[in-house]
Each structure stands twice: as C-alpha cells, then as structure tokens.
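Hi L., both proteins are below.
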Amino acid sequence: MGEGRHHDGKEKNKFEKVVESKEFKELMDRKKKFIVPLTIFFLVFYFALPILTSYTKILHQPAIGDITWVWIFALAQFIMTWTLVTIYMKKSAAFDMLAQKIVEEEVSKGGKEQ
C-alpha cells in the first residue's frame, strides 16, 4: 500500500495528511500535556468546596472575624478561574500559531507528499 492512500485505495485528503504529520502529532501531544493537568487541577479545586463543606467542618472555622474559610475558598475559586482562563488564552495563542504554521507548510507543499 503506497503513501498517501487509504486501505481502500482512495487518495487521502489534505486534512488527513496534516493530521498524520509528525508536526501535528507533536502539537496535539503538547496541547494534551498542558490541558490535562490544568483540567484535573480545576476539577479537584472546584469539587473540593462542596465536598469539604458537606462532609467536613474544616472550612467552617472562622478565618477573619466572622468570615469563615468557606467564603475565602469560594472567592479563591473565582480567582483560580480567571487565572486559568488567562493562562489558557496565552497558551492557546501559541498553539494557534503552531497550528497555522503546520497548515502553511502543507499549503506550500501543495498537499503533496515529500
């Protein structure tokens, strides 16, 4: 079976060639290495508040005067969300530039195998 052909013998389209390229696979690996840990952190931090307030009394202790740790944790979730969004937006811009470079390289080749 020759390069650029499916198992059924049809030519691969340009999209399939890009997806199978080494550069695209590297980009996807880099994105996963960034997004997966960020998502896990977000979910753990997000679900910690309802779990800790429902099943423990740890956050019900006063932190500053009558303000309990629950309120501080809840405020921290807003700060965490905005921080993660800012980090993601900056990192996604870099990913978009890499993706654009991959597309431009494929277009410059005219979609032909090299």
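That was the first. Here is the second:
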Amino acid sequence: MSKIIPSVAKLLAGNTVTKVGAPVATTSSAKYSTKSEASFEIKPFKLHKLEKGPATTATLTSEDALKLYEQLAILRRIETASGNLYREKIIRGFCHLYSGQEAVAVGMRAAMRDIDTVITAYRCHGWTYLMGASVVGVLSELTGRRTGVSRGKGGSMHLYAKNFYGGNGIVGAQVPLGAGIGFAHKYKGDGGVNFALYGDGAANQGQLFEAYNMAKLWDLPCVFVCENNGYGMGTSMERASASTDYYSRGDYIPGIWVDGMDVLATREATKFCIDWCTSGKGPLVMEMETYRYSGHSMSDPGTSYRTRDEIQEVRQTRDPITSYKDKILSNELATPDQLKEIDAKVRQEVDDATKQAKAEPEIGIEELAGDIYVDCIDPVIRGVIPNAPLQHISVAQRN
C-alpha cells in the first residue's frame, strides 16, 4: 500500500498564491472571507501517451470554494446516515459506502457540463445526489420507500437521475454501457462526454478491454475512470493486478493518473478530459488514486485485510475534506464561521431527510409492473404466474 499512503511531506508540498478581492457576497451571519480568489499547485499528473496533461495550477474563487466544501460535506453525511440506517436494519441487502472517495465525484461534477453523462458501479449514492437527486430521494431509495429515486424498487445499487445511468450491480458491466452512451453522444452530435467509472477490482475484467477497443476504433467521447481505492473487495491491488498503473491499461488509449483525494486535481483533470474528447481525439483512461474508509460493503468490517493504523493514517494525512478545508482556510477563501454554518446546514438537511426516509410508506403491489416502458405499446405484462398477467402503469413523471 505504499502507493496509496504517501508521506506527509509530499502532501504538504506545493505553494499557493492568493489574490485580494472583495468579500464574498452572502446572506450568512458568519464572518466573511477576505479574499475572492486563490491559486493552488496540484500534485503532478502521471501521463500515458500524452505530451501534455491537465493544468497543474488551479484557481479557486471563494464562492466555488464554499460550494465544493458543502458538496463534500453532504456526501460524507449521506454515507454516515446510510451506515446508521443499515445498522438499524432499516436499509436491507447490499450497501456500499463512498466515504473517503468524495473528492473524485465532487471534483468531476464541478467540471462537467449539463450535457455530459455518468455511469458507475454500486458505490453510487453520492453520484446520484450530485447529478440532481435530492437527499430524500437517495435515502428513501435506500430504505425502499416511495419517495426514492426509483420508487424504492432499486435500492442501494440502482439509483438514477438525469444523465446518470446508475448504479450497476454487476462488476465492470457498466463500462461497455458507458461506451454505448458515448456512442450515443457521437451519433446525436450533442457534444456530450460520458464518464464510465469502475474500481480497481473491476479493472481486470475482459469486458473493459473490449469497451476500450470499440471506443478507440470509433473515437468515442468516453472517459474510462478507474477509482483505485487500493482494494477489490478484500484483495489489495498488488495481489490482484500484474500492473497497478491503471491509467496505462488502455495501451493505445492515452491515460492520466490523478490524486483522487484532491478535489481540485480531479476537477482540473476532468476539464482536460472534456476538452480532449470534444475535440474529436477519442477516449481517455483516467485513474483516480483514492481510498475507502469502510469495508467493501456494510457486511465487510474492512479490517481483516488491512490494519486500523493504515486507515487512521489516511484519515489523518489524506482525508479529502480535512485537507481541502485546511487549504481554503489558510488561503482565506472561507472563514471557520462560514464552514461551521455549512456543517450545521448539511447536518440538518440530512437529518431531516433521514427522518422522512424512515417515515414514508412503501409503494403498493399495483406498481409491480409500473414504468417498465416509457412508451408502452402493449399494457399486458407477463408475470411469473401462468394466466395471471400484470397491467402496466406509468407512474414516474416524464420530462
């Protein structure tokens, strides 16, 4: 795990340059930040078949600084609530938490445009929220209630939102689907880019390399994003992969290694990917080196194949929220009062959503055949009981 846990000295390297500006306009009663913008040095990217990579200096406004902090905090809080609901046996079945990996999703989403699409694996709660679902919609889906984004029928692994194609339960299966979505972007000529995310545990799947091949043959606007959290279930990447340089696994597809614990690095890398794909250069492979604090799923304590000291060291030296908080405070893009106010707001929003997710009822049996089709030609749906067909109904609102 030496790649996963760098020394503190490396983490603290890098200079910052701040620019003085007007205080941030806000209705908050907290003391305002005194600087409107700052520039940050980013840990160098590793490149494969690229002469030039993403910018290694990122500029951040005070307004964006607060927005990113709030999103990071909400994702962490959603997963804390999810873990508690699972322990209470209100969430049943599989439940995979994203705690520790928040900077990947938040930074990527900050760079994405409305036309861009995302498809990921089953560690998808945070992505669902970032793509437009409400906190209630996420937590209610986890508890199987009618206010869930899938009406409570999908659960933890099957959440969806506009331009967000899940939430997929089969390891690696979302990657060729992502290539298909990239094909749709190119076919329609809408200028969109698809981001297909998978873990290091799925990186050895044959279907990934088939998707790479087709994406490069057709120069699809698709970015294959490996969220390398160090472990595929309970197996470390060193034990599972002959090559752990996942960003170079595309061979003939250019690749980028990114510090996935730095929200500014993930944002800048995603900007680069969008520029690359929209200029007709084809796909990219992007490795986000990150870490998960919980086990693979809630049924995995996560300490039988790694030590508690390892987890604690990452929390103390690389936590994506703590390190980002220190950056924006030291560069006066935010004040402690402003961040405390955001923390309180996030806590209240997630707590209220948790209460609603517990209180809402489940859907009725009449929705068993609901929303199978967008445009239903034949409303008679065959069920498992002979001569007892179901009746299709439309429930979800359509845009």
